[in-house]
Design goal:
Keywords: DNA-binding, Phosphoprotein, Transcription, Transcription regulation, Two-component regulatory system
Order of helices and strands: EHEHEHEHEHEEEEHHHEE
CATH class of the largest domain: Alpha Beta
GO molecular function, one term: transcription cis-regulatory region binding
Protein name: DNA-binding response regulator
CATH architecture of the largest domain: 3-Layer(aba) Sandwich
Radius of gyration: 18 Å
CATH superfamily of the largest domain: Response regulator
Strand content: 15-25%
Shape: elongated
Strand order of the largest sheet: 2-1-3-4-5
Distance between the termini: 46 Å
Helix content: 40-55%
Number of strands: 11
Pfam families: Response_reg, Trans_reg_C
Length: about 230
């Protein structure tokens, strides 16, 4: 994979380079936010690993600006901040994953490899999935319900896609965190509930028939009830 690492701590840069060496990854380095944003715009990367506390431009602002130009590239946030509100804010900027510092190299490798597998799996799946009059075109990353286009953020899209390819199946919050955000938190984060509410406002509230249902004590399910 072609990886862009935006990080200003030499020790962390060295750790990541050593940790991913021999994994068939090539790593480009930017040591401040403005340089990282420029490199992300000029080159094609398979993954961006992005620190939050950066000189020049905060990592969350870098993430937001990258997303305005590129909805596809996965972004893995690195941060010493581990409170729920910090994590939710990162996902509100459309980050794909969040890893707290200090971290273990095995966990970083596992997350990087998961992004690689996810990209491979997307290439082998069908182009369109639907339920009722809700349709996702997985090539163009567009969503419609009836004749109405639904505009989603990158994170909202991934959540809806996961619910849709598992339609009629009750999915726990842990399942959703692992598959949509590539995370395994043991800290009671409510990021899943927050994003389900975002989706409901866009694909359910404007329409008479509701598709996203809560199964109390178990999770969420996307189904077309009569």
């Amino acid at each position: 994979m072609e990886i862009l690492l935006i990080e200003d701590e030499p020790s962390v840069i060295s750790l990541i380079e050593r940790g991913l060496k021999g994994e068939n990854h090539r790593i480009s380095i930017a040591m401040d936010g403005f340089t990282g944003l420029k490199m992300a715009g000029l080159n094609r990367y398979d993954l961006i690993i992005l620190d939050v506390m950066l000189p020049g431009m905060n990592g969350l602002d870098v993430c937001k600006n990258i997303r305005m130009a590129n909805e596809e590239v996965p972004i893995l946030i690195l941060s010493a901040l581990n409170q729920t509100e910090d994590i939710v804010e990162a996902f509100n900027r459309d980050a794909d994953d969040y890893l707290t510092k200090p971290f273990k190299l095995d966990e970083l490798r596992a997350r990087v490899n998961r992004f690689s597998r996810r990209a491979t799996n997307r290439k082998s799946t069908s182009n369109t999935v639907s339920i009722g009059n809700l349709v996702i075109d997985r090539d163009s990353k567009t969503v419609t319900r009836g004749n109405t286009p639904i505009i989603l953020t990158a994170t909202e899209y991934r959540l809806l896609e996961y619910l849709l390819i598992n339609k009629n199946k009750v999915l726990s919050r842990v399942d959703i965190l692992e598959k949509v955000w590539s995370m395994d938190f043991n800290m009671g984060t409510n990021v899943v509930d927050v994003y389900v509410n975002y989706l409901r406002k866009k694909i359910d509230h404007p329409f008479e028939k509701k598709l996203i249902h809560t199964v109390i004590g178990m999770g969420y399910v996307l189904r077309n009830e009569n």
